[in-house]
Amino acid sequence: MKRRQFFFLSGGVAIAGLDSLAKSANSQTSPLDSDYLTEPPYFRFASIADSGTGTRSQYDVAEAMKRYYDRNPYPLVLMAGDNIYNQGEIERVELVFERPYKPLRDRGVRFQAVLGNHDIRTENGDPQVAYPEFNMAGRYYTFSEGNIQFFALDTNYKADWDNQLVWLENELARSNATWKIVFGHHQVYGSGHYGYNEFLASKLTPLFARYEVPLYINGHEHHYERTHPIQGTTYLICGCAAGLRPTRRSVWTARSASRLGFAAYEVYEKKIIVEAIAPDGTVFDRGIIDRKIV
User: Fold this and answer.
1) What is the Cα–Cα distance from 222 to 2, expressed in whole angstroms?
2) What is the pTM of this model?
3) 224 touches 250 (CB < 8 A)
4) In this model, does residue 5 exceed pLDDT 50?
5) Could you confirm whether domain 40-290 is CATH 3.40.1190.20?
């Protein structure tokens, strides 16, 4: 048994349908139900992570995001951490954020960031929290877009976990949003360099199941990965906005790829359609995230 699978099975997180996940491990895509595509989505957004390198690869992905916007306008990009490499120096923000995403910023697209492990290397990330265009209302915060509520987490080892987890549970419990979407930097279920995160799985997986969170978005792993639903939650890694590391597959993996790109989301009443889009515009994953209907 692979090391990451051992931790996955022994980490105290019970996953309903584990046998069916294992049996579907060869499935790399999810079929789309055309019935949900007869009307336009009521909201679109994109996500990137591990983006802030200033390299040609970052600019290529940014250009693909602009081309996608031209066909399918969206008002929001989630930035799931490591916004500024290598040390989180705010002095580099022009090179690694303002310049590559200028076409989107000029069109009024808003970026909402969280802190990654590289971001906290300078003044614990405080300059990025204060930077206006990252729109961070704190190290962890929430905001809404219509009937979608987003919850931004600080998943770093220095995070104020005691207070943050109380805050998150309280906010999830009081939320009446149709969709609850959480994003942070670190992976919970991953198949790359870092793999399964036992600490975050023990803290977040039960909480997400209790309050019916259908989607968690993150980076840290430098690849793309979408899981099968785990207790109702899909975990999506989009840490491929500027650089790559190899990835494999795990029992929870619906699709994984070591390819540059970003994730684009179309939100409907009952489903979210997610696509992984490469710099040349190729869609290399397309999946469905269902909302639990009570």
Assistant:
1) 20
2) 0.90
3) no
4) no
5) no
